[in-house]
Amino acid sequence: MTVDAHHHVWDLSVRDQDWIRGPELEPIRRSFTIADLERLARPVGVDRTVLVQTVTVAEETPEFLDLAERNEIVAGVVGWTDLTSPDVADTLARLRELPGGSYLRGIRHQVQGEADPEWLLRPDVRRGLAAVADAGLVYDLLVLPHQLPACVKAAESLPELTFVLDHLGKPPIASGTMEPWASRIRALAALPNTVCKLSGMVTEADWKTWRVEDLRPCTDTVLEAFGPSRLMFGSDWPVCTLAATYADVSDAAVALTEGLRDDERRQIFEGTATRVYRL
């Protein structure tokens, strides 16, 4: 059994995805449903998933919770709420009371789009992160390499909150430049309340020419830094389809972990996500 710990869906008839702009993203400028996901995920052995937010719109999280309630494959939801709001704790409590509210497992914000590299350290954001911890949820980090030092400081200051790093912190795979990304990853991984998703790599590589070996240096870095018990597989579907099919991403993850023991691979493909997201 495999858990896909990171995927999305969206319906453009409900709302626009304002981040899908430009000709290079045109292939994903359409609606993607849970049924579409299941047709691709089931054949490669995925039987549970974590549905992750896509836009900073409050209405999306209740919609995702409802999808989880109605679709067996979705075992957890990482939603969005405004961390800077003074009533974030009340908002999280209200989300838990909605249909499907028991599926809420974490919160995420597109920190990668914030101009301030230390956005995570703002007092109002820190208060919101503390509320996430108090609610028994985890926090997904969507950041760029230059924002990783702030992630380290945030995780140090909130040891009671589990931080899940999405997409390896977006290493510059296409350029082949490992530093300073690798050093910053090791600093984050040194903190016991941090976890990393083995996801999003193909779209950080050259979309047309990437090979599994292009991804290996970054995979090896996070394997060494976090260890299999703090790594989890995620497809990043349908964003991954800009560079690869769902099966391609799954096959790449299997190839990149082929040197591990069976129990270590079970952690990456099932155990870590099940434990961290309480699936």
Shape assignment: globular
Q: Give the % helix.
A: 25-40%
Tell me which CATH architecture applies here.
Alpha-Beta Barrel
Order of helices and strands: EHEHEHEHEHEHEHEHH
Mean pLDDT: 97
Number of domains: 1
Superfamily (CATH H level) name = Metal-dependent hydrolases
Write down how many β-strands occur, each being a DSSP E stretch of 2 or more residues.
Answer: 8
Question: How much strand?
Answer: 5-15%
CATH class: Alpha Beta
Domain Amidohydrolase-related: 3-279
Protein name: Amidohydrolase family protein
InterPro entries: Amidohydro-rel, Metal_Hydrolase, Metallo-dep_Lactonases
Family: Belongs to the metallo-dependent hydrolases superfamily.
Please describe what this structure looks like.
This protein is an alpha/beta fold and 279 residues long. Helices cover 36% and strands 14% of the residues. It contains nine helices and eight strands. It has helices at residues 34-41, 60-70, 88-97, 123-134, 148-157, 181-189, 212-226, 246-256, 262-276; strands spanning 2-7, 46-52, 74-79, 104-109, 138-141, 163-165, 194-198, 231-233. An eight-stranded parallel β-sheet has the order 1-2-3-4-5-6-7-8. It is globular.
